[in-house]
Amino acid sequence: MSPLRTFRRLGALTLVTATLTLPLSGVASAAPATDSAGVCSLPGIERLCPPKTVVLDGNRLLLNKLALLVGDRTVKTSLGNLVKQADVAVKAGPWTVADKERVPPSGDKHDYLSLAPYWWPSQPKTAANPLGCPYVQRDGVLNPETTAVSDKAERLKAFSSIYQLSLAWYYTGKADYARRAALDLRTWFLDAATKMNPNLNFAQGIPCKNDGRGIGIIEFSYTFTQVLDAAAILSTGAPGWSKADEGAFKGWSGEFLTWLRTSQYGKDEAAAQNNHGTFMDMLTAGIALYTGQDAVTKDILEKAKAGRIDHQIAADGSQPEEVARTRTFHYSTFNLVALTRLAQIGRHAGVDLWGYRNPQGGSIFKAVDFLLPAATGGAAQWHYPDLNFTQYAALDSVHAAADAGDRQARAALPKVPAPPGGDLYPVRPAAEQLDDISTTG
């Protein structure tokens, strides 16, 4: 081994030893004590400090960088899979809501627009009834006409790319990744000609029925919290992302949070009893944490104990609201994405959702454990109907529960298959929906 490599490994090991005094994923995340003195805000120093992420554990990300220096195979393999995605994203986009053909009811293309995925025309389309009204619901069956409105698909591409590129820059230091992520962020959120207005007034509208619905907020819920984490990562000194950019994006996020908490659509979504309500809590708690509204964050998290976990998780760990759907495994794993991410936000805010047990004995851990037979054994071990059972959909939530101390989840992990793109959780340790998000509503 060369002297330089020896020095790097010894230095990394020293840093790992020092950093192990910081909390890991599964313990409340916190910035190092020196941050209060402003050390982490100094140019060049910020990259040695954990990112102030809202879902991801910044300390875990920092440890991953150090693990790469000493040749950790799991982290290296996971990063290789992430970089493959980033290499595609760095050549794509940028995306904007302003380039769609269909004009929202407001007349302003800067307003986000999407159609309800599971609603279909019930009558033949004629000159007198060109849309085939009225529309009727077919739960779990995607109407392909909804894809003709581009905002939803482009939002998914933009937000996923921003997340992948920011993480790839953080681990590799390649400036092109950071600059592209910053360009995508500014294009979607900040530049006057292309930015989205901070509202979802026209999300998941139903033709002939309404212009939008509170239910449409779910299209942003976890993917926007990924963008928040990406922005926090870029704020550790990424080329192409300035303090002015950071301030402007925090301003946009604050305006969006105000709309979410005061609009009727936002109030409707917050009142939902199933995964929609959970994702709304996760979205608003994450934005509040990112914008420095700590009291709001804690209030949302504390209310989620009775408002979400008490209602949504039965004593055996099943999720009654989700197993009533036509895609029972999909929606059970989907709601767990929201619950586990909400619990990770709680770690940052000092509210323990992982350890909370409801009056029936249900908990997030139990909800994960309920899925383990199917997650490890396949559809034959899932005793509810599902239109499109996808076994690997549970992987990230099993990872998250294992990190938080669930021994059953940890023992099951080697038996849960990875998605086609590989297991990315080691380098972006938070749950994602791993099956097809385009059909979720």
UniProtKB/TrEMBL annotation:
Keywords from the UniProt entry: Lyase, Signal
Keyword flag Secreted: no
Any one GO MF annotation of this record: lyase activity
Region (Disordered): 413-441
Signal peptide positions on this chain: 1-30
InterPro entries: Alginate_lyase_dom, Chondroitin_lyas
Occurrences of domain Alginate lyase (ranges): 97-379
Record carries keyword Cytoplasm: no
Protein name (Swiss-Prot/TrEMBL): Alginate lyase family protein
Protein source organism: Amycolatopsis heterodermiae
